[in-house]
């Protein structure tokens, strides 16, 4: 009887403690549901007053959503972005639009695909695949007149990077602040051609347009990342290694398979581009003495992935990192002709190396 009485007392205490918490959780869920449902509705179904909105060339979905919210066309920019993502709307066009507060999100999204450009691009910046942050700074400098020092100062400013983290939390995470990382934004400025309506836009506009593009591209691979068990940072790091090792003739999926096979076996990745990144040099050949550089990026000395990306990867390398080929290769070698030879054992690798590269 005593034990039964104690059990009842325990149940009552648990009920008294958990009941308020459950009520709060239920209330929060209901509140969130009501808020999202409201945000998916027109701002004012009865207000058909025309509102002119200009969407600049090069605007990302993040920028477009913010413009729409600022002009009172949508209730919540974040909800609009998720709506667009889940409905697979794409190919939004720059232009001068006429919206009303009575329009649904579906009507707004469809209209954004038919814009007439009213401002010509005065500046185009092309960021090729495989470029590093310092190289991108040079490209921007050559196109805009900003000094590379000025650009790098902005790209490495901790306060500014923290602002970017708040704006793009799905892409920029605390991983980029690892003490061993050389540049927090390395690998996060997506390779593409960017158009701007000003000859010299602000550094903030250019940088955020590139980060927003990374967000836009990676949004397509959310499920793939979850399936593969990769964070955004791990994905971009692996993709950067593939990008730097790949040649025009390379099979990126096979290169990815070698890296994953080595990681699974606990072998160091031993990829030369990480050594060059550690050295801070661009050379056509890595020598044995280079492999001794003391750096967390040196994958000959340290197992696992390097602290972060060593360059910005293109979409092909991102896809390869998510969908590697199934092989039993542990080595690969790029020949002077650009072909990539894959081998299973060190002896096979050394024979091919002696044949095509010679002694270092």
Automatic annotation (TrEMBL):
Pfam families: YceG (PF02618). InterPro entries: MLTG-like (IPR003770). One of its GO terms (molecular function) is lytic endotransglycosylase activity. GO terms for cellular component: plasma membrane. The record marks 245 as: Important for catalytic activity. Its EC number is 4.2.2.29. Keywords: Cell membrane, Cell wall biogenesis/degradation, Lyase, Membrane, Transmembrane, Transmembrane helix. It catalyses: a peptidoglycan chain = a peptidoglycan chain with N-acetyl-1,6-anhydromuramyl-[peptide] at the reducing end + a peptidoglycan chain with N-acetylglucosamine at the non-reducing end. The chain crosses the membrane at residues 13-36. One of its GO terms (biological process) is peptidoglycan biosynthetic process. The keyword Iron does not apply. Its main location: membrane. Belongs to the transglycosylase MltG family. This is Endolytic murein transglycosylase. It comes from Anoxybacillus flavithermus. The gene is mltG.
């Amino acid at each position: 009887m005593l034990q039964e009485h104690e059990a009842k007392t325990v149940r009552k205490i648990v009920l008294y403690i958990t009941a308020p918490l459950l009520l709060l959780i239920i209330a929060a869920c209901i509140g969130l549901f009501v808020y999202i449902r409201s945000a998916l509705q027109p701002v004012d179904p009865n207000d058909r007053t025309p509102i002119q909105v200009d969407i600049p060339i090069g605007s990302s979905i993040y920028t477009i959503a913010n413009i729409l919210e600022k002009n009172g066309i949508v209730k919540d920019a974040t909800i609009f972005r998720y709506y667009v993502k889940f409905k697979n709307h794409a190919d939004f066009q720059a232009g001068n639009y006429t919206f009303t507060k009575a329009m649904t999100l579906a009507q707004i999204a469809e209209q954004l695909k038919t814009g007439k450009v009213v401002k010509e691009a005065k500046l185009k910046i092309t960021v090729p695949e495989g470029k590093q942050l310092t190289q991108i700074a040079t490209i921007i400098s050559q196109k805009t007149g900003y000094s590379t020092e000025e650009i790098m100062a902005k790209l490495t400013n901790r306060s500014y990077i923290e602002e970017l983290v708040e704006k793009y939390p799905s892409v920029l995470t605390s991983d980029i602040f690892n003490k061993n990382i050389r540049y927090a934004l390395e690998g996060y400025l997506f390779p593409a051609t960017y158009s701007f309506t000003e000859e010299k836009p602000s550094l903030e506009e250019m940088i955020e347009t590139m980060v927003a593009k990374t967000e836009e591209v990676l949004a397509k691979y959310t499920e793939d990342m979850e399936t593969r068990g990769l964070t955004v940072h791990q994905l971009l790091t692996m993709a950067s290694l593939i990008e730097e090792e790949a040649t025009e003739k390379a099979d990126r999926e096979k290169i990815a398979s070698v890296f994953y096979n080595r990681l699974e076996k606990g072998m160091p990745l031993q990829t030369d581009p990480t050594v060059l990144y550690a050295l801070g040099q661009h050379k056509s050949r890595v020598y044995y003495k280079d492999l001794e550089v003391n750096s967390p990026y040196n994958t000959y000395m340290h197992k696992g992935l390097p602290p972060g990306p060593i360059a910005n990867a293109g979409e092909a390398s991102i896809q390869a990192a998510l969908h590697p080929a199934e092989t039993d290769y542990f080595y690969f070698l790029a020949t002077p002709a650009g072909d990539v030879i894959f081998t299973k054992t060190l002896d096979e690798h050394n024979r091919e190396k002696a044949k095509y590269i010679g002694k270092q």
